[in-house]
Fold these 4 entries.
Entry 1:
Amino acid sequence: MAEVAPGVSDNGPAPQPGKRHRYLANQVAEYNRQTPQEIKSRDSVDVIADIDLEVFNEFTLLLTQYLADNAPGQENLQRYVRLTATYLIFIARKPLHPPGLLFADGQRLTAHGNTFYCPVKSRQLPGVPSVCQYCVSRDISEMPTGQ
């Protein structure tokens, strides 16, 4: 059965275009508010040895540039995003967007067990660096049929 992140609405069709931005902002904000609480509640981190340092460094450089371009001068926001994104990808092994998030095409980011499937993963432009390439989600086309 598909899972939805706590606080993510799982009812109804995709919001109307005018309300779409507010829907995304609310859903992602709730997911991002929960992440620091999850970090604080962890007793230990037992996956450090599994982190590829080269991939981690590439991600850090790309995210730093993305934040400099999209949130210039907002050091607190940049620090918060770096912390939560790094935790989600490298420690919790969760997607950057909340499971259950409804995209404009009516498809959801879906979780089946510990595997996540994203309907927009395949839309990354080849050769264009994107934070999405580090997300643990797989393309939704890889989801087993009948799920």
Entry 2:
Amino acid sequence: MDSKLILITGLPASGKTTLARELEKALKSSFCTLWLDGYELRKIFGHEEMSEMAARKMEEVLPRFLEVLKGKGLLIILSIVASKESFRERLLGLMESVHVHLVCGERIRRQRDAKGVYDKAIEGKIFLPGFSETYEELKDADLFLDTTGLSIDEEVRAVLKLLRERGWI
């Protein structure tokens, strides 16, 4: 059985990690899931802090890593910023995929920002997609979620509904 990919994208602090964590909890009893988060991947690639080098390393190495996982029969949940359209398209083209994109206003993202990345970006200490560099507009996604007004349970239900419609669950 081939692996499948749930790609969760959005600006920093838009709720990607929270949604991915709760989605994995909802799916792990029925599937062999693997959740990969951008923060953890940056640590693996040797760039814990957000930097332009870390973003480029992610764009270079992550598709190769997913290619290795392609035939493992996993349900991969990938929560990353993915600011470039070409990178998102490359990831989605590796295997059967669904793309969930999260949006919310800057004020909410700054309130949620437990790591202080927006302040660090203002001070010029880190590279922040959507702040230090333009976040390329999405041409499309399978599901857009405005996390400003949705509870995490509503977000998870929306993704599960999409997976049911695709015949994944």
Entry 3:
Amino acid sequence: MSVGGSVAERAGAWASVRDRLRERGLRWTPQRRLMVDVLAQTDGHITGAELVERCRELDPATIPSTVYRTLDVLEQLGVIRHGHGRDGREEFHVLPQNEHGHLFCSGCSGSWDIEAPEASPLVRALRRQRGFAVDLSHLTVVGVCEDCSSDRGVARRS
């Protein structure tokens, strides 16, 4: 699911979570409310452990299992989407505007999003040559960024 990027659209997506949880027979508990409030203040990516930590800063009684179960439900609602970082850990994209993968530099540990238009030659080649349909949100490419390549004297390859 793609969520618009305007402030009003983002606020609307979070405002509807309570009712959408209740439609699924789930309670709107103080812990879920806290979690949604923390996520609403998050831009970009967050791991489950980071979310538990941020929630515990506001409420030390936060239970990790509730956070992880609620993350699964929020993904079904489309307000977050999970992917995997360079080390394989699960991370969540908060209100993803569009599907994207990730580039990670093994030199400086920098990370960048790779949007669909930039990844499309690879995605098309894998489809054409192997019949493989790529889930871009799970694509992680590890390598060396331009700055680290220059620092190490690594030649750029095209």
Entry 4:
Amino acid sequence: MAPQAIKSVGIGSGSDLTGTKCLRAGGGTLGGVAASVLPALVPLFSPNAVVTLGGCEVADGVKGRNLLMAVSKALGGIAVQGATGYQFTVLGHLRGDVWRARGGRVQNLGQWPNIPGPTAAPPNRMAADIGAVTSSSRTTR
């Protein structure tokens, strides 16, 4: 049997092979605690919420897009997006192509200024973006 392709996103240095401190997907499913924790968050999101994974190269390649799909599935089909480039928070937007997973499919939305949805804002509005995402994610169904 071939080894599973695994993609992870976390913060800081070092590695976490268990999925305790990062989101980790392989074989189309999440590993570690995220598989049981994320479904519990579903009631906190509105149906049109968009979750952004802001790590570097989160959506890069097939493994990255599979990670977006696995997180979306764990969140009950809510849209989850990430980008292919290196991310710098001072810019206030995603760099590279932005990919969004929702409802069992993943789609390339192109570069940031063209992205539809509640998190699409011009650069240098990071605080406003965070406020919009926070209030959007707290709206119950």
